[in-house]
Design brief:
By secondary structure, the chain is α+β, with helices and mostly antiparallel strands. The protein is built from 25 helices and 18 strands. It has 5 domains: about 100 residues, Winged helix-like DNA-binding domain superfamily/Winged helix DNA-binding domain (Arc Repressor Mutant, subunit A); about 200 residues, 3-Layer(aba) Sandwich (Rossmann fold), CATH 3.40.50; about 55 residues, no CATH class; about 100 residues, Arc Repressor Mutant, subunit A, CATH 1.10.10; about 90 residues, Methane Monooxygenase Hydroxylase, Chain G, domain 1 (Up-down Bundle). α6 packs across α8, α18 crosses α19 and α23 packs antiparallel against α24. The longest helix is centred in the C-terminal third of the chain and has 31 residues. The radius of gyration is 29 Å and the shape is elongated.
Length: about 600
């Protein structure tokens, strides 16, 4: 374990701790931070960092800037006056804080919540559950509470709410009523989740008292609960303002004896009337043992701007507490997998494999595990007490793909976009998790400015795409770049394209790279080779690798040059014996020269060491 400042980096469990509290950090940013921390006080170039973390894959260098921004946010660091990570322009990074080794320790957990029944059903959310419990405890003092639980799809918002509701329902300490906002329904029927919650209240053991209070203080709402169209069919409906005030007063009266917890899920799909009710409940000053707990999916902007405006207003006035759910840490993923398999000791490497594949998203963890079982990469052996899970083949040899359940979920989200927007994201997937706007424009043969505008609009709407920065191109123009929130989204977008379409787009990107770096193509020849190889253009892929090898030899990187030439030779062999004899002979000759230079360099260093 490494310590710097008030932080500890637990390399065994791949998590970050600050003053003993675990901070969730995704796998790749953790790997970047670990490499920096393990090499403090010296320049780490962009190439060194990329080669160390992505040894066999070409990755856009812009991804490093994205991860550095994320790390600085987690560490509370300032790029202008760095305490931890210093940027050395056009060269790389340096970890400037003193680093010390310290004893290994398990990340501490928050004290267990009062109900032991919740522990088996929720993993890695003890701190979040304790936070909700603390907010609930304030109701006894008459402090109404409004809490928004946010996170990406599958992060465990509903599971956390379920655990919290089980906990407070384990004793007759509160009334709980839940309503679900539904896309396409909430926009058509006013107060849809409110009506559902009121129906639950009236159907509970204390339902008779709830009906009496509603009948006395908000009769229109009681009739709405019993017959949703009653208000619409009434010849003289009460005014919305009076109806809203009546319901607020009735809910406060309902919470007089027992605390009342209203749960509205997927609030980003709520109708305007429901949002108005939430706004009114938050602003009322009268003491009330009333807690409103709502979930929503994190994104730059909600499908309807009304929710975004409400959330920003309530946050600014400090009338709501927002709880962002982070991905699970590696130990929590292992625990979740162990629980699902009913096996304490997991097959070697399984926990790490699923953690990196899922990036700590609980839904992705379960889906990946089920996919491995369905594909018989995980097999149940033995019977009874001797039964256990084994992996076959080794995880390193598995090409897992995207689980069907997740692929379908992602496809549904993609299909909601226009064809032009889908093509934009498909083109972005041709690169890596990070992709620049100029490459998307090149792949689609579109105007770069219009492409960037469309991608900006998508990044504001979609939670799985984010604008990550801007780069200056060799011709002096600037181009924004973006990142996919999760690698599985990129995989689905990549494989939904026909091979012929992908090939054309890869070639256009490679050609545009050559144009942008005219006169110094060798500096990007590896990336050009990657695109030509993906397109099946073996000749141009080999030529690009050959140029990259010459560039490496000029820098004295003979081992790198030999590796590149070996790859080029294997590609030339794809052309067949009749097409490739001459290029193959030339490559063999260059490979012999590179290997000889490598041997001579090693002998020189050995002789130098002997003299010293």
């Amino acid at each position: 374990m490494k310590q710097f400042g008030s932080f500890r980096l637990d390399t065994a469990n791949e998590c970050l701790l600050r003053d003993g509290v675990t901070i969730a950090i995704p796998p790749k940013p953790f790997s970047v931070l670990r490499y920096l921390v393990e090499n403090p006080g010296r320049l780490i170039t962009h190439d060194e960092l990329l080669d160390a973390l992505w040894p066999e894959t070409y990755v856009q260098p812009q991804i490093l800037r994205t991860y550095m921004l994320e790390l600085r946010k987690l560490l509370g660091d300032d790029a202008g006056q760095p305490r931890f990570i210093q940027t050395l322009p056009k060269r790389g990074y340096c970890f400037v804080a003193p680093v010390a080794d310290c004893a290994e320790a398990k990340p501490p957990r928050a004290s267990a919540v009062s109900s032991p029944e919740t522990s088996p059903s929720i993993v890695g959310r003890e701190n979040d559950l304790a936070h909700l419990t603390a907010q609930f405890d304030l109701l006894s003092q008459g402090e109404r509470r409004l809490v928004f639980v946010a996170g990406e799809a599958g992060i465990g918002k509903t599971a956390l709410i379920d655990a919290f509701c089980r906990q407070i329902n384990s004793t007759p300490a509160a009334r709980v009523a839940r309503g679900q906002c539904v896309q396409g329904i909430g926009c058509k029927e006013e107060y849809y989740p409110v009506t559902e919650a009121l129906s639950q209240l009236c159907a509970q053991p204390h339902g008779e008292s709830a009906r009496r209070i509603l009948s006395r203080m908000a009769p229109a709402w009681l009739s709405l609960q019993q017959e949703p169209q009653a208000m619409a069919d009434s010849s003289r409906p009460p005014s919305p303002e009076r109806t809203l005030g009546d319901l607020c007063a009735a809910l406060e009266e309902l919470s007089a004896d027992l605390p009342l917890v209203l749960v509205f899920e997927d609030l980003d799909w709520a109708d305007d009337s429901t949002l108005n009710l939430i706004s009114a409940l938050a602003r009322r000053r009268a003491p009330a043992k009333l807690m409103l707990l709502a979930t929503y999916r994190s994104r730059k902007s909600a499908p309807d701007q009304s929710f975004k405006a409400l959330k920003q207003d309530l946050l600014m006035r400090r009338l709501v507490i927002e709880k962002q759910l982070a991905p699970l840490a590696k130990p929590d993923v292992r625990q979740l997998v162990s629980r699902e398999l009913h096996q304490e000791t997991l097959p070697a490497g399984l926990g790490d494999f699923i953690y990196h594949r899922s990036e700590g998203n609980p839904l992705f963890v379960i889906a990946t595990l089920q996919h491995l079982i369905a594909q018989r990469f995980l097999v149940r052996r033995g019977h009874g007490a001797e039964a256990h899970w084994e992996q076959h083949p080794p995880l390193q040899a598995i090409e897992a793909g995207v689980p069907d359940e997740l692929a379908q979920m992602i496809e549904i989200e993609i299909e909601r976009l226009t064809p032009a927007e889908q093509h934009m994201l498909e083109a972005g997937s041709l690169l890596h998790v990070a992709f620049p706007a100029w490459a998307v424009a090149a792949a689609l043969d579109k105007d770069p400015s219009e492409t960037e505008e469309t991608l900006d609009a998508l990044a504001r709407r979609l939670y799985f795409v984010e604008r990550a920065g801007q780069d200056e191109l060799p011709d002096g123009t600037r181009s924004a770049f973006y990142v996919f929130a999760h690698g599985l989204y990129r995989e689905v977008l990549y494989h939904r394209q026909a091979e012929s379409r992908r090939a054309k787009r890869h070639i256009r990107i490679a050609q545009r790279l050559g144009q942008l770096f005219a006169g110094r193509q060798a500096s990007v020849s590896r990336e050009m080779a990657m695109h030509y190889e993906a397109a099946g253009d073996w000749t141009r892929a080999a030529d690009s690798l050959r140029a990259a090898a010459r560039h490496a030899q000029q820098r004295g990187a003979h081992a790198d040059a030999a590796e590149l030439l070996e790859r080029a030779l294997s590609m030339i062999q794809n052309l067949g014996d009749l097409q490739s004899p001459s290029p193959a002979r030339d490559l063999q000759s260059e490979l012999i020269v590179a290997r000889q230079a490598l041997i001579e360099g090693a002998q020189f260093e050995e002789n130098l060491s002997a003299k010293v």
